[in-house]
Automatic annotation (TrEMBL):
InterPro entries: GvpK. Keywords: Gas vesicle. It comes from the Bacteria. Belongs to the gas vesicle GvpK family. Residues 1-20, 28-43 have a biased composition (Basic and acidic residues). GO terms for cellular component: gas vesicle. One of its GO terms (biological process) is gas vesicle organization. Residues 1-43 are annotated as: Disordered. It is found in: Gas vesicle. Its main location: other. This is Gas vesicle protein K.
Length: 125
């Protein structure tokens, strides 16, 4: 048996699960009220969600840099001037992060993604 491009099992819009879920996802209609699979594309929400994602990545990097700096402080790898500059830089970055969170109505815990069985992305204080 040969199949062609118009065959719903193999064509460009094939339903790999055979249950209509691919068609529903493409059309934005799911079971029930028809809104379950729709994306919320409100400009304010998209901007806030993008800011949340970016701030989450920056917060992760900030915490990693802070841990690295503490390790280097403990090992005595830094001069006094370097310690002061790193400390000041980390404090300024933390202040700026707080300002950006406030601007977009985010709390620190909003930046901590739940990775399911792996637990949270950021350590909880």
């Amino acid at each position: 048996m040969t199949t062609g491009p118009d065959d719903p099992r193999t064509g460009p819009h094939a339903d790999p699960h055979g249950d209509g879920s691919a068609r529903s996802a493409r059309s934005g209609r799911g079971e029930g009220d028809g809104r379950r699979n729709r994306l919320d594309l409100e400009p304010d929400t998209v901007e806030r969600d993008l800011v949340k994602l970016v701030l989450t990545v920056v917060e992760l990097l900030r915490q990693l840099m802070e841990r690295q700096a503490l390790r280097r402080f403990d090992e005595g790898d830094l001069t006094e001037d370097q310690e002061e500059r790193i400390g000041l830089t980390l404090m300024l970055l933390e202040e700026r992060m707080a300002e950006l969170r406030d601007r977009y109505g985010l709390r620190p815990e909003d930046l901590n993604l739940d990775l399911g069985p792996l637990g949270p992305l950021l350590p909880r204080d």
